[in-house]
Amino acid sequence: MTALKKYQRLECGGLWRETPQDQRREVLVRFGDATLVLSDPKSGAAISHWSLPAIERINRGEEPPVFAPGPDAHESLELTDPDMIAALGAVRNAVQSATSRPGRLRGVLLAGTAAAVLLVGVLWLPSALVRHTASVVPPSQRADIGQRALDDLARLTGTNCRNQLGLQALAALSERVFGPLDTPILYVMPEGVERPLHLPGDMIVLPRRMIEEANGPEAAAGAALVERLRSRARDPMIPLLEFAGLRVTFGLLTTAELPNGALDGYGEAALRATPADLPDSTVISAFEAAQIPLTPYAVAVDPDGLTTGTLVSNDPYKGLSETPLISDEAWLALQGICSG
Questions:
Q1: Which of 53, 132, 299, 303 to pair with 25, CA 20 to 30 A apart?
Q2: What is the maximum alpha-carbon separation in the chain?
Q3: Are residues 227 and 305 in the same domain?
Q4: 113 is a domain residue
């Protein structure tokens, strides 16, 4: 959440439980741009990524504070560092101010925008209103809306795969591709997802087959990288608001609220949507910068090479010896993310 700049690079120790029955384990806790990263203090390997806006304190009134990555999560994290506790409190306040106290957004925008919006032409209004509303939705609310879209998707695909070792491996892969401070949340759904897709709040959904049928993590890493490029090329709030409709969009602009049911069916629409094309040069440059071979991803999305021939022929790491993106143990764990 870029609004909380002063907390970037904040680190502290914590005590993490994978489930309530497990022993507490020491972890290094790092406050990122949109995630809380939990890692092994000895090896530095990522253990878990938590979406900052979803984090909840689960023992109010007791000390020391204990947090969880969502209401249905099994994981928990005990913290004593006052700066980290304050940072998580600031995130929670930002979420609440975006969803429960819309006056700030309404006060700033409504006076200067609503009258003009109502006067514009019928043909211009819908797209302009969607673009403008998308541009002013704060990061905390984007994350909340993205989670609601993911919940709707889960009605069709089942809840995201949650094998704990697999989730740790997925977090490690995300950190390897995007770095420790700008990591999106990666999800794998048990069925129904045939191609990668992205949602507001920096969420990326990967096809299960790209993991279980692959010889290594390169195809999944490439898919995540390309979806991040697509989300940067076109704001993912725009197709979501286009689906929700003009009335919902105007309501979000003027009240900072998205009504219950506004995203019903969006998961199906996201599965059916055609992915946006990206210039080959943009994709090649991104893979080169991330030091990820391009060929495994290109073959996974187009085995016949009808649309990815240029990518394969210009793979900056083709034929070179590769440093594994994650360890063999982590890759095996990632392949089992949907088991158990």
A1: 53
A2: 63
A3: yes
A4: no
As a whole number of angstroms, the distance between CA 330 and CA 335 comes to 9
pLDDT digits (tens, 9 = 90+) for 43-78: 877 788 888 777 889 998 889 999 998 777 788 999
Q: Are residues 62 and 208 in the same domain?
A: no
Nearest to 203 by CA among 258, 163, 143: 143
Q: What angle do CA 182, 86, 149 make, to 5 degrees?
A: 50
Residue 227 predicted with pLDDT over 70: yes
Q: What is the dihedral of CA 198, 199, 202, 205, to 10 degrees?
A: -40
The string of pLDDT tens digits covering residues 80-92 is 998 888 888 887 7
Q: Of all residues in the chain, what percent are helix, strand and coil, respectively (each to 5)? A: 50, 15, 40
Question: Which range marks the domain in which residue 218 is found?
Answer: 142-237+266-335
pTM, entire model:
0.75
Residues 185, 283 within the same domain: yes
pLDDT digits (tens, 9 = 90+) for 119-161: 444 445 678 889 989 998 888 788 889 989 999 999 999 999 9
In this structure, the number of other CB atoms found within 10 A of the CB of residue 43 comes to 9
pLDDT value at residue 3: 43
What are the DSSP E strand ranges found in 33-83?
35-39, 46-51, 56-57, 66-68, 76-78
Count: domains in the chain: 2
Element (H, E) at 164: helix 164-178
DSSP reduced 3-state for 7: helix
Contact 79, 30 (CB under 8 A): no
Half-sphere exposure (Cβ direction) of 331: Cα atoms closer than 13 Å: 15
| Ramachandran category for residue 84: left, alpha or beta (phi over 0 → left; psi -120 to 50 → alpha) | alpha
Q: What is the DSSP string of 78-139?
A: E---HHHHHHHHHHHHHHHHHHT-THHHHHHHIIIIIHHHHHS-TTTHHHHHHHHHHHH--H
